[in-house]
Amino acid sequence: MRLDEYVNIEANERAERRRLAKEKSYAIVDQLERFQHRFDEAVQGESMFGSVSPSIFVGSGNYPNVSTGILSPVGREDDAARFETSGAWYEEGVGIEDVFQRRTSLLNSNRPTDVASVGVDETGSVHDAWDGFVGVQREVAIADRPVDVEIGLDGTPDVDFDVSDDDIATPTGPRARAESAALGENPHVPRPVKKTLEDDDWRAQGAMNYLYRRGFDVYEINSVLSAGALGRAADRKLVPTRWSITAVDDTVGQYLRGTIRDAPSVDAVQIHRNEYLGNAFWVILAPGQWEFELVEMKAPGSIWNPDPQGGLWMSSAREGYEGRTGYVDETAGAYYASRLAVLEHLSEIGRQAKALVLRHVSDDYWGPVGVWQVRESVRDAFGDERAESETFGEAVRGVTDHLPVSLAELRRKSEMASGLQTSLGEFARSRTS
């Protein structure tokens, strides 16, 4: 299929997703008022609050003195699972307003915790910490369904909707200081999770990959890791949610890279595309050994480039066949989320490739929803339809026509687009054409 034919088909699919997202639009201010009303109805006695919790949150600010919380959808207990960040949000076609609506429905009952001293010994390990607030939090994290909890609160929630660095990774809403927490039921813990808990000598990386191979998605693994329930006994500590999301994406990504290390290459240059929540993703797969690069183009007026009069902001990061040894600062969590999605596809088809992901963040992306939308958008880019090109260079030139940058600008930022990684075969074809 030619690139122009593919773009027309994909544009129709994007229009349908925009229609679904528009139907799910909510007024955020009204939602905050509704939350306050639901909270007032839920308070019992001396600020005792009974709810159902689908997930937890561990902050990263001022580490190792962090805020740890149990998230509960106040007044929405019967539908608690819908409020937990997962790939299901993409399948629903949620809009940015809907994400914020769910955020403001989750009460973060939290308390300050010193990660270095939360455990039962001088190492700070939470290996056997199953009592008190941290213990309840861990039970919620390892369960495979929302858990009945009863939380004692100190005062009313702080309905503060300012965006912080922590909000980048996972959405949280109103916060209230928790004085106590107790389980209202015995949580159901999947057998594979029990196995990782019982093995005190299992490194966290191996346990994560084990759970992934057993069908657990990265969202579920992230929750278990964040609660300090993976790894060797002495090494089990609470992990800030933002860090654990990237750690799981990176660890599983490295495992998947190993599955394609000796696989044959894709046999043609492929172009895949997807767009969601004001983010457009182009994925170019080309014959050759594994190589990956993410280039981000953030339009002025978008959430990460808010000055409407400013210029386009570009960032990039890449890795070769052997992977990376250092953390990616410039593109951060988006790098690991998009790389995971590409590797999942290649592992599924049993091939390896050079992979270039181009992300255009438009000014329609006005609020942060988390890196889940990067992961799910790239995952879904590999549908039945795709375009093909004769050469990698031709694919890059064709895609650039749909980007807010010139080919020269892209080449200055992207090593792959600059031709530094061009294969000998492609070079020969370009010389004879």
Question: What do these coordinates show?
Answer:
With 433 residues, this protein is of the alpha+beta class. The chain has two domains: 21-187, no CATH class; 260-421, no CATH class. The chain contains 15 helices and twelve strands. A six-stranded mixed beta sheet has the order 1-5-6-4-3-2. A six-stranded mixed beta sheet has the order 10-9-11-8-7-12. Helix 9 packs across helix 10 (241-259). It is globular. Residues 161-169 and 420-433 have low confidence and may be disordered. Involved in DNA damage repair. Keywords: DNA damage, DNA repair. Residues 160-191 are annotated as: Disordered. This is DNA repair protein. Residues 20-305 form the Archaeal Nre N-terminal domain.
Estimate nothing, just give the exact number of structural domains: 2
Radius of gyration, taken over Cα atoms and rounded to an integer in Å? 23 Å
| Strand order, largest beta sheet | 1-5-6-4-3-2
What's the helix-strand series? HHEEEHHEHEHEHHHHEEEEHEHEHHH
Binned, the helix content reads: 25-40%
Strand content: 15-25%
Structural class: alpha+beta
Residue windows where pLDDT falls under 50 for at least 5 positions: 161-169, 420-433
Main sheet attributes: strand count, strand direction, barrel closure:
6 strands, mixed
Number of helices: 15
Described by the principal axes of the CA atoms, the overall outline is globular
Distance between the termini: 21 Å
